[in-house]
User: Fold this.
Amino acid sequence: MQLKIIDVIVPLPLHGTFSYNVPESMEYPQPGMRVLVPWGTKQLVAIACKKRLTPIDDDIIIKDIIAVLDDRPIVTTEQMALWQWVAEYYMCPIGDVMVAALPTKANDKGFSFSPIAKRRVKLPEYIGEIEDIHIPDLQQSHAMTQIKEQWQQHETVLLHGVTSSGKTEVYMHLIKEQLAADNQVLYLVPEIALTTQLTDRLQRIFGDKVIVYHSRVTDAVRAEIYRQQLYPNAKLIVGARSAVFLPFAKLGLVIVDEEHEPSYKQQDPAPRYHARSVAIMLAKQHGAKVLLGTATPAVESYYNALNGKYGLVVMTKRFAGLQLPAITLIDLQRQYHRKEMYGHFSDPLVARIKEELAREKQIILFQNRRGYAPMMSCTNCGTTPKCVNCDVPMTLHMRTRMLTCHYCGYSSPIPMSCPNCGGTMKIHGFGTERLEDEVQNLFPSARVMRMDLDSTAKKSAYQDIINAFAHHEVDILIGTQMVSKGLHFDDVSLVAVLNADNLFNQPDFRCYERAFQLLEQVSGRAGRKGQQGEVILQTFDPDNPIYKYLQNHDYPAFYQQQIAERKTFYYVPFCRMITVILRHKDENRVINAANFLQTRLMQVFAKRCSVVIEPSVARIQNMHIRTIRLRIEEKANYTLAKQMLKEQIDYIINLPDCKGVQVLPDVDPQ
Assistant:
């Protein structure tokens, strides 16, 4: 006699599957169905993944499943294969992948997700006129032809088009062709909240075929979208990174817009996947094509394109013959020396803003720090108020009269004097709040708005700011990197970066790449209609070679400089990287565990293993952090390397002295 065994995935951070018996009174659940299973003193909703028969063994006790919850699978075979790939590639429990993939959150009682429920949620409908797509520009038509030619040889094509070159128009035509062929399209964007204009445009063209899927819509709406996706129904899915886990019946095209964006990489919690890589694997499963689009490619993507792994199509000119913006550098050291500064504004910048306001043009001011000032300190003893939970200075927010930690959210009142010696507290640096005050003082008649995480906290705030600026109800928009993404305003003639240097002062080998991308993207907001726009960069280091590449809008030259440096110092893409993160509330315990693990990894990986690294922020939410970095040769057996790493991690976490230490591998860290 044999037992009917079903292997299931449980919504817990555990590797592998777990086996249960299917009682004779129950029908065998199909793979992809939900089943209710006992788990200790609790019950969990799990996903059936494999059924098998096994002889009865009296020495082994196998618990029975409690119930089968579905009459048909809610997870497709392709989805389950993708979950398994994500779990293996990113070295994370498949239970974590399951939690990330299904449109709800796990809790102590399991999943509340019910896409096959009787109650259905009505999805938002587009009400308005449907417009047609026009591609009058010969350069865009040529790009479309090239993309299709490249797809004959490559499954993935990188579309490198300068800002305002018409990449979105190309996307629209490719989407239209796929929908006409009754195929589905996945259109990934880095941050859905920052792409309002794009979503509106897609809905004007494709109407109710557009479905928007991301973490900000309710669980009920996400579940209904998921339910509809289970059945063949050609739609255009626009979503952030989690949309890669939706079920697709007939996927024909995946577009990854702004493919360089670091927000495509999930950081915490696991799975720490990169949506671009998962999207490529998803497309491969379905035999679909992939288009990666950007004005500033990730160095790895450009490397893959130049070396033949991806196809490459380049759009070097702006749509309708528009010129790329002129970039002017202002030497802050010289300006301060001559006392030609108004707060954080140089004389030339103030003059240019006044000129553009007089012409009734709009201006964007960029500062990649929110709040009033990044820190305070005592002029007497140097004490700096720090977060009680994290090893970071507290950011000053004048609007709320609070010091706030941007890592954990802890806040405390602004001290009237030094809590250590009673001395005077001094403000250091500036953020968007302080800029807003300075702008209103310098240009009292200008209408000013600020766009950052603080000013857009309310649900409709971001849309309200965009609408106000688009309708010319705002003259000067101050913002963080939010203003660099997915925005198109006809009358922006001037963009200014108040302190470009702080983008380069990060302890990361990708620092210059990120800075170039962000500055080029924010520059692209200027002069998108009519005459050439201008970008002013205020800097203490005008001789930085990156500024020359920016002034010439010369990404290929920038890439050559970066790729030569990475080859010299053996960084990605000349190696593959894994960062091992160790965390614990006890600093000594995490240090000891990290040292012990590093010693063992050195025995296995030799020079491929770094020393134990103390991060620049070594404590977050009362968890002390240490890291170890592995660099594996590009042509080495990556699967074997990860297997060897996992063996060492498993050994460490089971030692009594390392009990409770979290050891988390981050594959392909960003």
